[in-house]
Design a protein that fits this description.
Elements (H helix, E strand, L loop, with lengths): L5 E10 L2 E11 L4 E5 L6 H9 L7 E6 L2 E2 L5 H7 L1 E3 L12 H13 L3 H14 L16 H13 L5 E5 L7 H16 L3 E5 L3 H7 L2 E6 L2 E6 L1 H4 L3 H8 L5
Parallel strand pairs: 3-8, 3-9, 6-7, 7-8
Antiparallel strand pairs: 1-2, 1-4, 4-5, 9-10
Length: about 240
């Protein structure tokens, strides 16, 4: 049996009397695209936060990456070990070019010199199919989709083993979501394991090998995506109970 590259065992997070994540367990296999979905407020982003230590770890439970426990480690150490993430809100250096933004990310997270950083930036741009003619544009002048590409590329310059993406399709048009689908497949084909939180179920169903559904901070279902989303309890969690 393949050893999971990432696993969470009974992880929980409490904020005072509120238990936002409750005893969540799952495993991600090397090379997999693993989807996470659930209604608003179900604990998806909180789960990402406690796995990566940004901005907090779990209240209880354990997280393992490549077989080693990482809960309790500082966030920068987790990232440099090869577990990187993006966020719902696009994050860029607005007054820097796209190319300079990537090189800074490579120098800081990858701890490499400028020449190596420039090479890694070129590789990351290629992986996300970023228009070469726009690399010298200010990040603030890029389109919504280009900012998504830049954010993903900023994580890729560190050459992560696992890339965690928090709602990358947010704000995108249908054609752009199709481009994102191709982008994710390309990154995954390069050897990067992907965890994907997404409200756009069509994208999740297209790219995910397995799907985890959270509801009210707990695991509601896990398994083959098309089967999971047809379960009555999953439909009810999203749409509510049918009136009699």
């Amino acid at each position: 049996m393949t050893t999971p590259i990432l696993s969470a065992t009974n992880v929980s997070k409490s904020f005072g009397g509120l238990r936002a994540v409750r005893d969540v367990s799952f495993e991600v296999r090397p090379g997999e695209m693993f989807g996470i979905a659930g209604p608003n407020g179900s604990g998806k982003s909180t789960l990402f936060n406690i796995i990566t230590g940004i901005p907090f770890g779990p209240t209880s439970g354990e997280v393992r990456f490549k077989g080693e426990r990482i809960d309790g480690r500082p966030a920068y150490a987790i990232a440099r070990a090869g577990l990187c993430r993006t966020f719902q809100k696009d994050a860029e250096f607005p007054d820097l070019s796209a190319a300079d933004s990537l090189e800074i990310s490579a120098v800081y997270n990858g701890r490499v010199d400028r020449r190596t950083a420039a090479r890694r930036a070129d590789e990351a741009f290629a992986l996300v199919a970023f228009d070469g003619g726009r690399r010298d544009m200010l990040s603030s002048e890029l389109s919504v989709f280009e900012k998504k590409q830049l954010m993903i590329a900023s994580a890729l310059v560190s050459r992560p083993a696992v890339l965690m993406l928090d709602e990358p399709a947010s704000g995108l048009t249908r054609p752009e979501i199709e481009q994102l689908d191709a982008l994710l497949r390309n990154v995954n084909a390069s050897g990067v394991t992907i965890l994907l939180i997404e409200h756009v179920l069509a994208l999740l169903l297209s790219v995910s090998q397995r799907l985890l559904i959270l509801n009210q901070g707990e695991v509601l279902a896990e398994g083959e995506p098309s089967a999971v989303v047809r379960r009555p309890d999953v439909v009810e969690a999203y749409l509510g109970k049918r009136s009699q």
